[in-house]
Amino acid sequence: MRTQVGIIGAGPAGLLLSHLLHLRGISSVVLERRSREYVERRVRAGVLEQGTVDTLVAAGVGERLLREGLPHRGIELRYGGAGHRIAFERLVPGRAITVYGQQEVVKDLIAARLAADGDVRFEVDDVAVHDIGTDRPYVTFGGGERLDCDVIAGCDGFHGVTRPSIPDGVLTAYEREYPFAWLGVLARVEPSAEELIYARTERGFALHSMRSPEVSRFYLQVPAGTDLADWPDERVWAELRTRLETVPGFSLATGEIFERGVTPLRSFVAEPMQYGRLYLAGDAAHIVPPTGAKGLNLAVADVRVLTGALARFYADGSTELLDGYSAACLKRVWRAQHFSWWMTTLLHTFDSDDAYGRRLQLSHLDYVTSSEAAAATLAENYVGLPYEDGDPAGP
Ligand code: APR
Ligand code: PHB
Q1: Is 200 near ligand 2, meaning CB less than 6 Å away?
Q2: Out of 44, 82, 117, 337, which residue is the most buried by the measure of CB atoms under 10 Å away?
Q3: Could you read off the pLDDT of 249-285 as tens digits, one per residue?
Q4: DSSP class of residue 168?
């Protein structure tokens, strides 16, 4: 079998790349280890930057997103018995975010790929990449199948096979682990507030989010290694109440919890994001803690850059943009790394923090919620910085 671009992984990065390449007349095959049902049901974050929305709409996969996504023009930071709104409309006029579950993006992308006769293969075992240091790389999978390609895109997430296939000594990993995780639940209940609430309490962080007028999404900071079995529904609701019902007049509506999970928090970057004819995109190359809601948005930004570089390669044979792929992505990646780390340290409780550290954190929160300049820094990063290529409609 032969294709132009072999794509490993059918998460948002691999699927969007395949679709953007198709729009440029470039062929690809996507190889995914899990089933279609599994990837369509995998619950992740749900905040899309304006640039992500524009990219998906320009790619023709934004119809349901525009219909069902919830535009938000602010978030609340809640601590010390009061709520403080970060008003995007005032701080970053004309920019907003859209709340739309990542698995909905995945469903829309799969539907678009299949409608365009795209080659997306699910439940593919034993994927391995070969000869990536040459200009004739290939992928093997299943019981002895082989896919020859010009280029391989490693879109297989943090635990994938492509990054570890790069020879030792090429990559430098930059990493930070946090001593806590997020316990996330989806509940069939109307959101208790119109906007997201990021709550900092002495007992830990909590987040009120949503998916639709009927479904709310919540997260609780819990110790790393937490077992879901220790968190029956009553305990989840009691803890959410304690951490969120901290301002006068706010009461949390409860309902049936129908999905739950624990996600460790990690910061990670592998540099460079390429080797030979293998290009890493999305979580395969970098991870951010979810506090800044940047994971999916960074994956989209990588894929835009890679699409532009591959389009140039196929147009005139030049590898100039491909050679500069990693450098072009890493500026934004590191900005998101800093923002996500910063939001995480601003809002979580760290066991290692002494009383002095907690005072610093509160002072920082007071500054962010009282200074227009500090609030604008948060808002500008949260809604997403403009793309380097300056094209809001996509590559
Ligand atoms: N072979 C084939 N597919 C694989 C393999 C493998 N060996 N290993 C992993 N995969 C698949 C996974 O099953 C998954 O579907 O690669 C896909 C990677 O998708 P994601 O983890 O969603 O990563 P990405 O597409 O980069 O999207 C980034 O996802 O993790 C979230 O918060 C993150 O929002 C961000 C987004
Ligand atoms: C979510 O709704 O899943 C969500 C929202 C904001 C975040 C992270 C996750 O920072």
Answers
A1: no
A2: 337
A3: 999 999 999 999 999 999 999 999 999 999 999 999 9
A4: T
